[in-house]
Amino acid sequence: MFHVLQYQPLRLITQNSLSSMFSRPVAFAQIGKSWFSSNSLLGKKNIILMGPPGAGKTTTGRIVGQKLDCPVIDIDDDVLETTWNMSVSEKLQDVGYEEFLEEEGKALLKFSASGSVISLSGSNPMHAAGMQHIKKNGIVVYLDVPTTVIMSRLKSKQMDRIVGLSPGVSLKDVLQFRKQFYKKWFDIRVLCGGDVAEVIAEKVLDAVKRYQESELETFISTRSSRSGRSTEEDSNKFYFSDVVIQGLALDGGLFVPERGLPKFTAEEWQGLIEATYVERAQVILERCIHPADIPASRLAQIVETAYGENFSCSKVAPVRHLAGNQFLLELFHGPTASFKDFALQLMPHLFAYCIPRSCNYLILVATSGDTGSAVLDGFSRLHDTDKQRIALMNFFPEDGVSPIQKSQMIGCQKENAWSVGVKSDFDFCQTAIKQIFTNSDFTGFLTVEYGTALAAANSINWARLLPQIVYHASAYLDLVHQGIISFGSPVDICIPTGNFGNMLAAFYAKMMGIPIRKCICASNENNVLTEFIRTGVYDLRGRKLISSFSPAVDILKSSNLERYLHLIANEDGQLVTQLFNQLENRGHFQLQKDLLGKLQQDLVAGWCSDEDCLAAIHSVYSTTGYILDTHTAVAKVVADRLQDRTCPIIISSTAHYSKFAPAILRALRIAEINQNPLSQLHLLSSYSALPPIHWGLLETLKKTGNGDHQVCAADMSVLMSHIETLIQNHFM
């Protein structure tokens, strides 16, 4: 079974066997999408356990080796001490910190093994050449244990051989410093918490099995079912990288993971309580994106780029107490001042990584306000070589967004990105894009004539939805960290809801193990979603879109609702197809009684008038000195009406009030309002309110003013003409 080392399980390595190993290095094969042979979980590769001192690598390694009936090698005990003829602590004391790392790395460079479980030392990952060598023939599993747990273990063991620990340098500092090296090398992360070694060993085996079975993490359309797949779905499997690029399924449905979302245990969530937002995002996204699509180390770089310096608050998505049992999840600290930044600072980098290098891509976006500037900003931060092959066209309702939102979208135009105002509403823009994607004649023409494919960056794209799960989970963990609740205590969540993406992300967080009790949908006067949740009837007949002070939820067709209905209908794609065909052709559909019952167990809904929205803004400012934006105010009004006050409620503050200055000034009862957006922001800043005026928005308006943009009629042929012209100008 094993071609290099013929050891009995758990037997220690002798000096003779070490000499044999060092003299007969194995040939390392390139690591591909499937790591292991079909006959064994391990094959000729090694499982390499990595983590801080005290993570349990040695004990876990022995249990894993026993379960796999394969050799077990502990680098500290079986390699270093045997090579040096002295203990690791003696060697460290003898040569000092820097020389120790070099000697340790040299020993690793001489080491070769096959088909074994290898437990690294806590400091091995700090030697780059040594890690590159050992990683070539194995899969590196990071045993991620919370720092507080590690410190407690090391203190009880009174360990004295920790590399880097010295007078003036705390153990916590050493452990924190090492994390950067662990993140660089691992292929798989296993959250350990306070688990016993037997449980951790099972997690390691499950994680390695998942890594091997990348072909199982596929996506299906909401309009297909397990018993009734389309011909295309039978012949093609869609992976994460595919759905990021394609956006919309060929049958008009939305992509969802075929095996559902991963589940976290309570212990795993608790292990993230002390983590930063970036660390939480990395862990959650790693579970949702297979490393065959995006390797964990590359994903970590993408997450750090997205949420590092681009957000004005170090906590990224802080939770602020408002009053009573109400808390605000502030989602407006990104560069364009809305919750859309969370997805659109991340998604462009995911997209650029996933697309093939042989094709150009034009991204089509429809926005009711905030998406436009967020997607323009996000894609403008790509590397120049990526911007040469990725262009973007943003369609928005010309008269259906706030003046500041429009100024921001126009000001955010770049050399590869344009904004087009459409003389219609958001629903037309969104429907038009969906029709363009399913127009095979047009998309085929673009591919053949210009070598350009279309892609979507709206909330229908799975890569837009996925990052939103993170901040709902993070908000709950922050409440636990602040001592407001203990883990396991329920919370309610209230979200201003239009396209249902943010609400769906909260529900997904609940499915993954966050104790969310009720998801409360808050609508404005375009309350078709509220009526649907209350009655089970989705009825657009006779409905016309009403312009409101909360334009981002001025939506009648909630696209992401389709994903939720597919879920509660037990993935019955035929039923979903029937419902949405009825909506398209007849303007309405009605849920079956049993499905309505399921829906109402998860969701409650209410709506708020413009007058009540402005009154809430005034009332909250008068009592707290805090200014809500118009969308958050809608959620606040609905939360006041529907919450039962038996648990905390987290209200999603989805945008900064600066974006809606005229409505805010009206709510604050300012008699005369200057029509210049920059003047409006200066007036608001004079209030010295919380939160302060948004830095990014202010800078954008200062630099760009109100530039030029294209405006077109609500006509499909006109939109397609604009698309072809952009492609000619940018790619040809």
From TrEMBL:
GO molecular function: pyridoxal phosphate binding
Domain Threonine synthase N-terminal: 229-307
Zinc as UniProt keyword: no
A GO biological-process term: amino acid biosynthetic process
Signal in keyword set: no
Family annotation (Gene3D superfamilies): 3.40.50.1100, P-loop containing nucleotide triphosphate hydrolases (3.40.50.300), Threonine synthase, N-terminal domain (3.90.1380.10)
Cofactor(s) this protein requires: pyridoxal 5'-phosphate
Pathway named in the protein's UniProt entry: Amino-acid biosynthesis
Keyword vocabulary terms for this entry: Amino-acid biosynthesis, Pyridoxal phosphate
Residues modified to N6-(pyridoxal phosphate)lysine: 340
GO CC, any one term: cytoplasm
InterPro entries documented for this protein: P-loop_NTPase, Ser/Thr_deHydtase_PyrdxlP-BS, Shikimate/glucono_kinase, Shikimate_kinase/TSH1, Thr_synth_N, Thr_synth_N_sf, Thr_synthase-like, TrpB-like_PALP_sf
NCBIfam families: thrC
Entry's family note: Belongs to the threonine synthase family.
Protein name according to UniProt: THNS1 protein
Species classification: Eukaryota, Metazoa, Chordata, Craniata, Vertebrata
Gene transcribed to yield this protein: Thnsl1
